[in-house]
């Protein structure tokens, strides 16, 4: 029987887990930011590579139902990811690296493992392969960046 | 240049182990928040105030109960007090708590800390002793952790000791009794290799239960017993079944199809879910290689976990009987998956063989070395036979009178036998092996029922040729044109008009045990085409 004068027992329940992917792999283009994706790890794309500063870059092929792309991640996070893992990627960016489009965690990026195995995916199209139009856009983008820098160089 | 500056912190937990990229489990988070509320509300776990609040305030009762559960799992010193309070608060109705524990164990067994597992087992023991309602649900999730993948052989011993101490439990829950028998018969090939002082008592306990209840398990109970025919007590029991019981006792057991819930027991919860997902969703060519590779690395990594070969026959049996055909032609079929699984076993067998051959290069008598020196090779050979038996078991027991005049998808007999039929179309070599297996096993599986088994297969072939005309008898017989003897035997046994039904007169022959440690290399008569040591069907253990 409920009694209003009984001492209370208040529980602070954990907040519900809310995550919505903001985009899909098929819609990724170079130099995008604030990307949230739900993906599955298909395979290890390449052996880990060491940078001059001693960081390890791990490269994976990830996919969702719209396509696949390369995912580069550094150090411990890369060591903890295994093939078949379902990952939640938050605050990621896209970048062209070695002439391939790839995704990587941004400055405040978060990589979370949320499951294994049970996710539908399509490996094609492979969005890492830059199309001709993307290549042209990229060249134009780089030209714009360089032309913005030239007045400052002249002044110095 | 942006740095890859991700902060990695593992979720803090006393129940489960996490890596730095995993999210906290919702059940873990809920239990922890309930327990944290005790301190936040300025109570202590030792006080009786919590019970009073829970008894008078329904909203808080569930939270307090879960807080007490968390205390049982994490606080060894106070576990008894927490348990008493839990019973005082809920009586024998702990359905909400048991539901929470079911979820926690089903999803997270591997991640649970060892000390928490001990506490869970302690909780099971206490609730068994207190005769709590719904305790069978909790017992079931523990039982499902005993399988050739998870193994949990310590848990095997614990469960059996618990059952010996509380014999009333199995009498109260007869379904649990049958599930327990099936579980332990599945794990025995691995369990009996581990010698312990109590083991003989434990084996006797399970065998006694089996003797009293084999008629309830159905045909797969007999299949598991045949797999254990090299165990003295089980061999004696099988002889007793065939010699000392009435003529139709064994056929009656074999006619009873084992229910799917038993066939799922040797599979862990994760394996079952992943297997169902793979068979329901995997698309041919585009996803096959990924899903199969992941599945193998998780569950069928024979090199790192040799005991996983014991899982294969159970997976095959589950796929044949419980799973259904995909109507979508772009998705993989059950026989494609089973063919792949068999290929992995054959590859592993070949790898072991090659390893032994290289090791035997310096041996004086290489053949003797090969045959005597590798228990692993014997085990893999036995398991390949068990896998074939799992595929074709229902063929031997096909009952034409029970066939429903409906489409193939809805008849349970055809659902399981279709897989073996389609496997005959995948490759020439595989089809030959399977036909030879059918022939020799039908002659030797249960000698007193030889005609019965062979007639069933013949009728099934006729039925399948009509319903699914992708094969005919000529195509199958053509594989043996170089071996007239086998050709004639197959023709007469399976592909002639059925003999008139005569009463089956059982002989005094024993059930032929398929695997036997005495002569591991006894094989079918070799022909020019086949590999001599491919199929191993043993002679019986006659007294």
Layout of SSEs?
The complex is a heterodimer of chains A (156) and B (543).
Chain A (H helix, E strand, L loop, with lengths): L34 E16 L5 E9 L2 E8 H6 L4 E13 L2 E17 L15 H24 L1
Parallel strand pairs in A: 3-5
Antiparallel strand pairs in A: 1-2, 1-4, 2-3, 4-5
Chain B lengths: L25 H15 L8 H8 L1 H17 L4 H12 L4 H14 L5 H16 L5 H9 L9 H13 L1 H6 L1 H18 L7 H19 L1 H9 L4 H12 L5 H7 L4 H4 L5 H13 L6 H12 L9 H13 L12 H26 L6 H8 L1 H22 L15 H15 L1 H17 L5 H18 L5 H5 L6 H11 L49
Helix pairs in contact in B: 1-3, 2-3, 2-4, 3-4, 5-7, 7-10, 8-11, 10-11, 10-12, 16-17, 18-19, 18-21, 19-21, 19-22, 21-22, 21-23, 22-23, 23-24
Briefly say what this structure is.
The complex is a heterodimer of chains A (156) and B (543). With 156 residues, chain A is α+β, with helices and mostly antiparallel strands. Chain A contains two helices and five strands.
Oligomeric state of this protein: heterodimer
Shape of chain B: elongated
Helix proportion of residues of chain B, in percent?
55-70%
Based on the structure given, which CATH architecture of chain A is correct? Beta Barrel
Taken as a percent bin, the fraction of beta residues of chain B is under 5%
Which CATH class of chain A is shown? Mainly Beta
Spans where pLDDT lies below 50 across 5 or more residues of chain B: 498-543
Q: Biggest sheet of chain A, strands in spatial order?
A: 1-2-3-5-4
Overall geometry of chain A? globular
Q: How many structural domains in the coordinates of chain A?
A: 1
Separate helix tally of chain A: 2
Uncertain residue segments of chain A: 152-156
Number of domains of chain B: 4
Mean pLDDT of chain A: 84
For the biggest sheet of chain B, the summary is:
none
Using only C-alpha atoms, the radius of gyration of chain B works out to: 27 Å
Order of SSEs of chain B = HHHHHHHHHHHHHHHHHHHHHHHHHH
Average pLDDT for all residues of chain B: 84
């Amino acid at each position: 029987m409920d009694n209003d004068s009984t001492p209370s027992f208040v529980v602070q329940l954990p907040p519900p887990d809310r995550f919505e992917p903001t985009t899909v792999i098929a819609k990724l283009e170079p130099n995008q930011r604030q990307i949230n994706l739900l993906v599955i790890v298909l395979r290890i794309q390449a052996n880990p590579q060491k940078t001059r500063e001693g960081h390890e870059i791990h490269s994976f092929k990830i996919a969702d139902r719209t396509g696949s792309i390369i995912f580069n991640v550094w150090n411990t996070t890369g060591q903890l990811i295994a093939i078949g893992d379902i990952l939640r990627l938050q605050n990621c960016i896209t970048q062209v690296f070695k002439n391939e489009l790839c995704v990587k965690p941004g400055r405040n990026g978060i990589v979370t493992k949320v499951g294994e195995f049970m996710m539908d995916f399509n490996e094609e199209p492979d969005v890492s392969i830059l199309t001709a139009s993307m290549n042209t856009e990229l060249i134009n983008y780089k030209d714009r960046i360089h032309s913005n820098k030239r007045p400052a160089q002249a002044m110095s | 240049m942006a740095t890859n500056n991700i902060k990695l912190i593992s979720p803090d937990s006393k129940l489960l182990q996490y890596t730095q990229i995993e999210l906290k489990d919702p059940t873990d988070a809920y239990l922890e928040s309930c327990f944290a509320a005790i301190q936040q509300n300025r109570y202590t776990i030792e006080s009786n105030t919590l019970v009073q609040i829970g008894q008078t305030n329904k909203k808080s009762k569930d939270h307090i109960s879960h807080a007490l559960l968390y205390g049982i799992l994490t606080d060894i010193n106070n576990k008894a007090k927490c348990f008493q309070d839990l019973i005082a608060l809920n009586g024998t109705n702990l359905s909400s708590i048991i539901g929470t524990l079911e979820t926690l164990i089903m999803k997270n067994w591997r991640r649970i800390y060892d000390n928490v597992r001990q506490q869970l087992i302690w909780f099971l023991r206490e609730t068994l002793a207190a005769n709590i309602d719904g305790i069978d649900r909790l017992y079931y999730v523990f039982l499902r952790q005993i399988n050739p993948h998870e193994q949990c052989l310590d848990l095997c011993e614990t469960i059996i000791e618990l059952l010996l101490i509380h014999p009333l439990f199995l009498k109260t829950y007869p379904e649990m009794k049958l599930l327990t028998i099936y579980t332990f018969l599945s794990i025995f090939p691995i369990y009996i290799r581990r010698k312990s002082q109590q083991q003989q008592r434990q084996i006797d306990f399970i065998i006694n239960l089996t003797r009293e209840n084999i008629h309830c398990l159905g045909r797969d109970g007999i299949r598991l017993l045949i797999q254990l025919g090299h165990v003295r007590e089980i061999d004696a029991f099988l002889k007793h079944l065939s010699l000392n019981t009435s003529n139709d006792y064994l056929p009656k057991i074999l006619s009873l199809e084992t229910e799917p819930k038993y066939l799922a027991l040797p599979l862990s919860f994760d394996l079952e879910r992943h297997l169902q997902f793979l068979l329901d969703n995997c698309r041919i060519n585009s996803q096959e290689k990924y899903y199969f590779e992941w599945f193998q690395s998780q569950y069928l990594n024979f090199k790192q976990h040799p005991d996983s070969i014991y899982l294969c026959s159970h997976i095959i049996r589950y796929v044949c009987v419980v799973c259904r055909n995909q109507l979508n032609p772009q998705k993989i079929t059950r026989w494609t998956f089973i063919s792949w699984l068999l290929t992995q076993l054959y590859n592993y067998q070949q790898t072991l063989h090659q390893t032994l051959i290289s090791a035997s290069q310096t041996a004086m008598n290489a053949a003797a070395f090969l045959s005597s020196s590798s228990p692993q090779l014997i085990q893999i050979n036995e398991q390949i036979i068990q896998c074939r038996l799992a595929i074709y078991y229902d063929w031997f027991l096909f009952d034409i009178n029970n066939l429903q005049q409906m489409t193939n998808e809805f008849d349970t007999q055809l659902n399981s036998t279709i897989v073996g039929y389609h496997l005959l179309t995948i490759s020439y070599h595989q089809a030959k092996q399977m036909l030879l297996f059918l022939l020799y096993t039908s002659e030797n599986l249960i000698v007193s029922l030889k005609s019965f088994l062979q007639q069933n297969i013949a009728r099934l072939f006729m039925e399948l040729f009509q319903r699914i005309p992708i094969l005919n008898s000529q195509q199958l017989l053509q594989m043996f044109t170089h071996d007239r003897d086998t050709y004639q035997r197959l023709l007469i046994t399976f592909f002639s008009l059925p003999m008139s039904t005569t009463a089956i007169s059982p002989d005094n022959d024993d059930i032929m045990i398929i695997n036997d440690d005495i002569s591991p290399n006894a094989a079918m008569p070799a022909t020019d085409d086949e590999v001599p040591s491919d199929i191993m069907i043993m002679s019986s253990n006659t007294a």
